[in-house]
């Protein structure tokens, strides 16, 4: 059972990102402020939910949230500042775009770069513990998937509609055979597709 909030004294936003482990495309992040009584039986960590349900949940989240925002850091920025810093930057950009200023942030994961003047708490597997982080994970994932579907039309050979830029065997094999697209992260290592990387 997911919890409605980490603390109930301050306006709280949940933050999460999607696309950290991908070979191509941006990292997306979302920040979501939900009403304290928000509840949805399907809402959970986006990785535990079917793709069709994630898009249905996105509609519900956007309809019911007090505020939400989605932001991204592209592959070129990722190559310059590394993926960890890019994830923090994407979350900062999402928080900055919120129409309501949060007073406290709950972050999925164990590390975060403090956002100016807002305290935060890092929560490992937070997207499976708190509604607002789960909601942020749904928005980050679905907006990123939309983006990958779009660029798949330019470069269908990499099958981004299927793999969303993650290092599947086919994706790695294709990179080894034909090289990077303009959307690939050049600093990410592409291992031999015969080797397991998980």
TrEMBL record:
* SUPFAM superfamilies xrefs: Ribonuclease H-like
Q: What processes in GO biological process is this protein linked to?
A: DNA replication, removal of RNA primer; mismatch repair
Q: Where in the cell is it found?
A: Cytoplasm
Task: Tell me its cofactors.
Answer: Mg(2+); Mn(2+)
- Residues forming the RNase H type-2 domain are 10-198
Gene Ontology terms for molecular function: manganese ion binding; RNA binding; RNA-DNA hybrid ribonuclease activity
Tell me the residue numbers annotated for binding a divalent metal cation. 16-17, 108
What residue range is the signal peptide? none
What EC number(s) has UniProt assigned to this enzyme? 3.1.26.4
Keywords in alphabetical order? Cytoplasm, Endonuclease, Hydrolase, Manganese, Metal-binding, Nuclease
What this protein is called in its record is Ribonuclease HII
- Naturally occurring in which organism (per UniProt): Pedobacter psychrophilus
This chain is encoded by the gene named rnhB
């Amino acid at each position: 059972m997911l919890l409605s909030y980490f603390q109930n004294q301050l306006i709280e936003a949940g933050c999460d990102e999607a696309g950290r482990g991908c070979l191509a495309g941006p990292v997306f992040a979302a920040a979501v402020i939900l009403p304290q009584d928000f509840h949805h039986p399907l809402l959970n960590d986006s990785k535990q939910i079917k793709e069709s349900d994630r898009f249905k949940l996105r509609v519900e989240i956007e309809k019911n949230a007090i505020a939400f925002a989605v932001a991204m850091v592209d592959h070129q920025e990722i190559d310059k500042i590394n993926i960890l810093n890019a994830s923090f930057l994407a979350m900062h950009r999402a928080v900055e775009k919120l129409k309501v200023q949060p007073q406290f942030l709950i972050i999925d994961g164990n590390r975060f770069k403090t956002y100016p003047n807002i305290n935060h708490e890092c929560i490992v597997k937070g997207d499976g513990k708190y509604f607002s982080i789960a909601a942020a994970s749904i928005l980050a994932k679905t907006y990123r998937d939309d983006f990958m579907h779009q660029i798949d039309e330019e470069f269908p050979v990499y099958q981004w509609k299927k793999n969303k830029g993650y290092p599947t065997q086919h994706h790695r094999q294709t990179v080894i055979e034909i090289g990077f697209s303009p959307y690939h992260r050049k600093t990410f290592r592409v291992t031999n597709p015969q080797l397991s990387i998980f």
